[in-house]
Amino acid sequence: GAVVSQHPSRVICKSGTSVKIECRSLDFQATTMFWYRQFPKQSLMLMATSNEGSKATYEQGVEKDKFLINHASLTLSTLTVTSAHPEDSSFYICSARRISNYGYTFGSGTRLTVV
Amino acid sequence: QQQVKQSPQSLIVQKGGIPIINCAYENTAFDYFPWYQQFPGKGPALLIAIRPDVSEKKEGRFTISFNKSAKQFSLHIMDSQPGDSATYFCAASKETSGSRLTFGEGTQLTVNP
Question: Could you write out the three-class secondary structure of A57-110?
Fold first, then answer.
């Protein structure tokens, strides 16, 4: 149980285009979903926290107009990287926190490359 | 300040050895301390977690030792195997308020055959 599906696993896009990453909890309802960014050989850096039906809370330094987060249901959150630039290339990971008990489940990550 | 400090940054052991990874935290309100294992190109996977009301927890070859007074906790991997080679992250959160995880810097473990 407690599976989080993240798609796509990798994506290459052209500079200036937008990319959407989907995070879905398959077998549980998630009160909260988190979006992280990870650079090579570094820890996870929290970008934003989203609760179903509410606006996301962004961490300091994260551009909310660039990284659009939508948490439309208790099982789905999306991250859209708008007007992507090469410096947005990174590994993006989502995590979902279960309603029923404590614990956080992570998606498998999305490798974004902007060319 | 909500920080979790992790050491060492990297660790190399021989097969069968017992690597130990240490973490220290500052916020005494933290009440959930998980360890995650991450392979290259994958998301972190929960290994084992502990709450501050116990001093030790074992799950298979993985053991967490927790010292509440010192605000430290550590991961021991018994009989380590080459397949354990991965990056390990400790984390902490205040579960009762649903707060986010605060991660350590990570430890890259290599287990040689």
Answer: EECCCCCCCCEEEEEEECCEEEEEECCCCHHHCEEEEEEEEECCCCCEEECCCE
What is the DSSP-derived secondary structure letter of residue A54? Answer: S
Interchain CB contact of A35 with B (< 8 Å): no
| pLDDT (average), residues A111-115 | 97
The rounded mean pLDDT for chain A is 92
**Please, are residues B67 and B73 in contact by the beta-carbon 8 Å criterion?**
yes
pLDDT of residue B2: 59
- pLDDT value for B94: 87
Is residue A6 within 8 A of residue A94, CB to CB? The reply is yes
The pairing of beta strand B4-7 with beta strand A110-114: unpaired
- Residue type at A79? L
Mutation site for B-interface testing, chosen from A102, A110, A111 by largest number of B Cβ within 10 Å:
A102
Considering only CB atoms, B32 lies closest to which of A44, A102, A109, namely A102
Look at residue A93 and tell me whether its pLDDT is greater than 60.
Answer: yes
What's the CA gap between B102 and B51, in Å, rounded? 15
Which residue in A47, A45, A33, A49 sits closest to A96, CA to CA? Answer: A33
Q: How many CA atoms lie within 13 A of A112 on its CB side?
A: 30
Q: What is the DSSP letter of B93?
A: B
Structure-block tokens of residue A59: 């961490």
Q: Which chain A residue has its CA at the smallest distance from B37's CA?
A: A106
